[in-house]
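Session log. Operator J.P. requested a structure for one protein chain; no other inputs attached. Running the standard single-chain path with token output.
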Amino acid sequence: MLICGIDEAGRGPLAGPVVAAAVVFEKGFIIEEVNDSKALNESERDRLFFRIINNCLDYRISITDNIEIDNTNILKATMKSMHSAIAHLSLKPDKYFIDGNYFKLPDNYEKDLDYETVIDGDAKVFEISCASILAKVTRDNIMRGYHIRFPEYNFHKHKGYATKEHYAMIRLHGLCEIHRKSFLKNIISELNSSG
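Structure written below.
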């Protein structure tokens, strides 16, 4: 039986993409060290990323950028990324486990899938934990790349999340092209009023 785990990274940040991953294993396969990506440090996630892609039967990673997030909303952008990851798998899994409590794909694609949503699934279901690691490592690497392009924001440190440092850099430098304007309406108003 083929099991697919699906998760995302980057729903909450003020900048950058949302990334979804779908990963397929034969039921019962385990990599002992795999845990929720948030419970692992960066070097553990990086090491496990390659173990996962070398041991899984199939995987896909999908990226939806900040422009799409602003044009729709974060939920639709997340579902679009999940849909793309699932639709581009080479294999057809028997069962899908999705982190969270909501799963509604474009064009009702999910109606033909045997799926289950699992709250805190990234800490409970091995396949979701693997998808969580793939999504998080991919997004972190993207944000490190953006740091090279926009070094004044220190994206390599906070990965676009809403830290004090990130807010301070936005107030100092304004927004760059990867910021999610829909997440920063108050700051945009503040910057516009201060001239």
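Operator note: The CA atoms of residues 68 and 77 lie 7 Å apart.
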